[in-house]
Specification:
Shape: elongated
Strand order of the largest sheet: 1-10-12-11-13-16-14-15
Number of helices: 12
Number of strands: 19
Structural class: alpha/beta
Distance between the termini: 43 Å
Bound molecules: zinc ion
Radius of gyration: 25 Å
Largest sheet: 8 strands, mixed
Length: 434
């Protein structure tokens, strides 16, 4: 069970100050690269990506607010959420009244340091617990931010695990948030362990797993790979906020009609009843890019507690206690279940007219117990819908038997000559509006 190991990795990554560019992203990817085969790519500042441009690279060494006695009342070295992401450098004295314009706090969570960024508007500022803010005494304060904004690169990583088929399953997660655990470190940690697991045995499909800064990274990546991804991707999963223990959540694709929707819903409804279901109208992570018109990848987002819905979200309370080994383990298993469903989700056709003679093939239990009657009934139900048009998930949805239970039955029936596989390729992008 990798839950504990995942939590250890997450704890190691937690202190790093990440942003959409910079050394924090590089350090994070280099640590993840110890566990999974990652290819790191650097895209220069100024590169055009669809309607966007790769911004200057941001790095920060230190920041604080000090009072007249030199006491640091806010210290970046104690918590990197204290500085607005992409703050420009500053070193000056100013009165509290003026400092207030550069402070951000949350009255509704007075002990939490909020997470604030300003990637595309040049400014500087600090984030502080509201309780601390109201305790600041009148007087002058020194504000100091030792940061740097200059032409550099946007860094991302890609892990391609080739399978038998050229068709791909796509996983995306983001590496641009500073010290917060569920949003976001749970995503890259689970994706890394999934990559490691995928590489341990041969797969039918090819896997493309990417670790990018949110939004600008997804757009930059798509600007380089949109065509091949549209051609090859049969299902995709964006992983975000996938390490707490509260619930499981799913954000649908635009028309809720892709293989990814079907697979995620099967894994959730048969094994994780009570999960939260959100339409594309509630999108907020990189599904915004992957589901946009003309990109239209068959992708859904998988979360435990969805971003924006849990109280600790985007604050210092999203910490190493909120994300647990059991929470991460649950998220990991959901992704693994979806992948296994896709790998095994074939179509079958029965080879005879009428019900096959199961006893002639030694497939009919000679001892009539109620459980054997039930299992014979399941086998006959599987055969009854094995007309070449349904895949195992369809048959599971019709019969109420999870596809992971139908799969070994189907394999046995193929061995006995009762069924043959009738694939083809699963429909990557069902016809729909747009
Ligand atoms: Zn976020």
């Amino acid at each position: 069970m990798p839950g504990r190991e995942m939590h250890e990795l997450l704890s190691r990554l937690f202190p790093i100050c990440r942003s959409i560019t910079g050394d924090g992203v590089r350090e994070t990817l280099s640590i993840l690269g110890e566990l999974a085969p990652l290819d790191v790519h650097e895209v220069p500042t100024g590169t055009k990506a669809f309607d966007w441009t790769v911004p200057p690279e941001w790095n920060i060494r230190d920041a604080f607010i000090a009072d007249e006695q030199g006491n640091k009342v806010v210290d970046f070295k104690r918590n990197n959420l204290h500085v607005i992401g992409y703050s420009t450098p500053v070193d000056r004295w100013l009165p509290l009244s003026e400092l207030q314009d550069h402070l951000h706090s949350r009255e509704d969570y007075p002990d939490a340091i909020p997470y604030v960024t300003s990637y595309y508007e040049k400014r500087w500022g600090f984030c502080i617990a509201h309780n601390k803010r109201v305790g600041l005494k009148d007087g002058n304060y020194r504000v100091f931010i030792d940061s740097e904004l200059r032409p550099g690169h946007l860094t991302y990583a890609e892990c391609i695990i080739p399978g038998e088929l050229q068709q791909e399953v796509f996983l995306s997660t983001y590496v641009c948030h500073p010290s917060m655990a569920n949003d976001e470190l749970s995503g890259p940690v689970v994706a890394t362990f999934i990559s490691r697991w995928l590489a341990t045995s041969p797969r039918r499909y090819t896997y493309r797993i990417i670790f990018i800064p949110e939004t600008i990274g997804a757009i930059t990546y798509l600007s380089r790979h949109r065509e091949e991804m549209r051609k090859n991707t049969i299902a995709g999963f964006n992983l975000s906020c996938i390490g707490d223990e509260r619930t499981y959540s799913y954000v649908a694709s635009r028309y809720e009609n892709t293989l990814a929707d079907k697979i995620a819903l099967h894994a959730l409804s048969f094994k994780r009843p009570g999960f939260a279901r959100y339409s594309f109208l509630k999108r907020g992570s990189d599904e915004r890019q992957y589901g946009s018109p003309g990109v239209d990848l068959p992708l859904v987002t998988l979360c435990r507690s969805k971003y924006g819905t849990y109280p600790e979200y985007h604050t210092s309370l999203d910490n190493l206690d909120l994300v647990t080994p059991a929470g991460l383990q649950g998220g990991y298993e959901l992704v693994k279940d979806c992948i296994q469903l896709i790998e095994h989700n074939r179509k079958y056709r029965v080879t005879c007219y009428g019900e096959p003679n199961l006893s002639r093939r030694g497939l009919y239990p000679t001892l009539g117990t109620s459980s054997s009657t039930r299992s014979v009934r399941s086998v006959l139900d599987l055969i009854a819908y094995a007309d070449g048009s349904n895949d195992l998930v369809d048959i599971g949805n019709i019969t109420g038997i999870p596809a992971w239970e139908l799969h070994p039955m189907a394999e046995k029936l193929v061995e006995a000559g009762v069924l043959v596989t009738a694939d083809d390729q699963p429909a990557a992008r069902p016809a729909g509006p747009g």
